Amino acid sequence: MDKDLIKDLIVKLAAVVGERNVLSHPVDLSVYESDAETLDASCPDLVVLPGSTEEVSAVVKLAAACRMPVVARGAGTGLSGGATCVRGGISLVLSRMNRVLYVSPEECCALVEVGATNVSVSQAASRFKLYFAPDPSSQSASTIGGNIAENAGGPHTLKYGMTTDHVMALKMVLADGRIVTTGGIGRSSNDLDLAGLIVGSEGTLAIVTEAVLKLIPKAEKTETLLAYFPSVGQAGQAVSDIVARGVIPAAMEMIDNLTLNAVEDYLGLGLDRSAAALLIIELDGQAIAIAEERKIVESCLVDNSIISSTWARDAQERATIWKARKTAFGALGRIAPHGYVLDGVIPRSKLAQAIEGIDEIARRNKVIVSNIYHAGDGNLHPCILYHRDNEEEVARVMRTGKEILTLCVELGGTLSGEHGIGIEKMEEMPLILNEEELELMGRVKQCFDPAGLLNPGKVFPQLKGCGESGRTLLRHKVFSHC
Ligand SMILES: Cc1cc2nc3c(=O)[nH]c(=O)nc-3n(C[C@H](O)[C@H](O)[C@H](O)COP(=O)(O)OP(=O)(O)OC[C@H]3O[C@@H](n4cnc5c(N)ncnc54)[C@H](O)[C@@H]3O)c2cc1C
Question: What is the 3-state secondary structure (H, E, C) of 290-358?
């Protein structure tokens, strides 16, 4: 974009959000060049940090007037390149809008600004013994806006569902700057489920500014188990058996031997380094039901040759068990500086087959893959460990990623369980959607954003007629400087 036009725009934006909330220095911009998917990097032209819905609306109107892309951004913890400004434009960072505006114990809901972190909602609700169920492992940093845009999940998605199941109403800014609300607190079947459409749309349809979130009561009792297995296949079979016998735990999470050892190197929790797989199972509900479920779980573990297991005796032990899982991605940084986290989904019953396939793909491409799974719902997070500066290694990493995602689809699964499509999986979309389905999605996009200014270059592999420039994708670009 023309330098004079940018200068003029900076002045107008500063009048809306204040001078200190418009960033244009290359060093500042470089902070926003990617999200946590660092294979793709591209700097925005400007970073703008609005403080209210009205300011978001005014910024979007100014951007639309000069046809500048606007990419919403929360905490930038996304793992599919969603917040990366592939076509430049404005990185619209919503982190200043971080208030939990109220919690209603009567309606079991909270009204929040979208820059609030996921964990802050449960913290605000805890005095009413309520909490917000979606719990991505990034919950201390990731924002409600990012959770909504990606339809985030987490370990407890197995029993409680994804973000979409916990969103009651949204306030949002459309591509032309108009402010609209959708949904409500009570039950309703008056209209199309627009909130359902916006959740998971990755900032490509509208910019969400406020949300009414459903809160649920804390369970009467929670029991958490740590179990070790001689093979990932046996752990996977135990997971399938537990569900087949009618028990839906709150969470069933698995990490493999490589990850387990990285966590142990990092935290020294006393984990069994020799086990091929570590499985965490959490049961919650009424005490009487849990006692029965415990027996079923234990018998499924024995049937699958468990090495050993322990139930947490108190809240502190439970927190330690979860620490092993929730620090897993960070701990992998001890093995290599970069990790490319995949998000494939497979039918739960195909876990052992998928793991064998991933091993074979990793060996053939000579890459290190660690495995972290939301095992209960078949959501796999193979993490390919690599050095971003080695172009030849990056090419193998990209190939490995594509092959693993293709394997997931071939096994009857899909491309993403919770991280979204972003830039990362855009080229793979035709593996799961045919031309008609892709075209239908394109028409929805066109209806919301005819000029193609909201998060362009994401999700939709080809956006014919949506005003997109058709510039080449950024994928695989290893070196990118602002
Ligand atoms: C260590 C680690 C662990 C993780 N664990 C999980 C997990 O267990 N489960 C899970 O689901 N994810 C997980 N993630 C991925 C990530 O945290 C989630 O996708 C999260 O929802 C992103 O939130 P964010 O605020 O960082 O969003 P960002 O990364 O800033 O943005 C993500 C997408 O949302 C859009 N967006 C952001 N705010 C808005 C808004 N207000 N309106 C419209 N669009 C918006 C952006 O344009 C972008 O497309 C993990 C990531 C890391 C780094």
Answer: HHHHHHHHHHHHHHCCCCEEEECCCHHHHHHHHHHHHCHHHHHHHCCCEEEECCCECCHHHHHHHHHHH
